[in-house]
Amino acid sequence: MDKTFLYDALRQVERDVVEGERRLAEQERAIHQLKRERKDTATAEAELDTLRRAQRVLDQDRQRLLSLLQP
Question: How far is the C-alpha of 34 from the C-alpha of 15, rounded, in Å?
């Protein structure tokens, strides 16, 4: 497999991982705010669960790419 392609894919996954972490933190802050306001958090928590699953997939993609780049 072309290493240039792998490095490009890894760079994109790394950007996606960083963005995913930012979105997770933002959603967690939103949930805390809703709780402080004693509002329903069910929808926000479901979204957080979805974001966490997506983040796990990104982490797996990153690990897969890193393993392909190992000598």
Answer: 29
